[in-house]
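So, can you check?
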Amino acid sequence: MLFNLLTPLADDIGFFNLFRYLTFRTGGAVMTAMLVTFLLGPKLIGWLKLRQGKGQPIRDDGPQSHRLTKQGTPTMGGFLILIGLGVATLLWADLTSGYVWSVLLVTLGYGLIGFWDDYLKVSKRNPKGVPGRLKLVLEVVIALIAVSWIMTLSEAHHATALSLPFFKDLLIQLGWFFPAVAVFVVVGASNAVNLTDGLDGLAIVPVMIAAASFALISYLVGNAVFSNYLQIHAVPGAGELAIFCGALVGAGLGFLWYNAPPAMVFMGDTGSLALGGALGTISVIVKHEIVLAIIGGLFVLETVSVIVQVISFKTTGKRVFRMAPLHHHFEQKGWAEPTVVIRFWIISVVLALIGLSTLKLR
């Protein structure tokens, strides 16, 4: 909004020229989202406690220790993130960018699905929430709408192509198969973050790390000079997504203040589905879908652990892990919750560095 309102005045008032710079607006988005989230936190958490009473129902098949340590903690804290993220993005981004609106569409749509799921869990005292198949269908529909929109915004040679890291000019043209791949990325990323969100602070920090990484990637692919120097595929207009990613980092920082162990609030599906979907959508726009699997490798590991556990138990009757997702396996092995969380954060940082290295190793 500020970009659209103030940059036309830059020729008369030199200060407003700052709003033409992505770096300045990204920094503004980080600070705005963090302050909004931090300041609204106490009131929103108090309201959620009042409305939810006993808080989020604890799963029967989860670690028994959680019944003691997490009982009564309110959920739907994702609202806090989405408010800060939304306000900062609308304030600092170029609102004529279709890329920004397509990411906001997925973020809001998945946030509403997550809210419905959290609401059923709290109101019905049932940890299952929305039936899995219905949730998946809704996610696919929203992702397909967003992907179709993104394809119309993209340049012709990019619209249905998949790029591979470590290769300079290689684009795999998928044709009409591309929407299926892109939808899989968006839905997969959303549910992968959702599976990771099982311990205090475990999901939000890797999300922030991935968002910071994609802020850099978005800035680079949106800049013709840098993309040419690094020999990565340029996506004109994608630089505006750096502002969304910056806002996500800021909102995550504000939320982490209240979600750090012991958590005062859980993000719930309201937050995890929305944030994962946003990361997936951004990766599709900037043509770094495979790099997302590297940077967000922790989310991939958590998801794979669940898939392996289910397949193994159904086919052999035996479990590969003591409990899935993976973070519960280490809890069952005796690791303290903060130990699991901090070590998983370290893994996320390492994976992000590996993912970012693909920008130069070509």
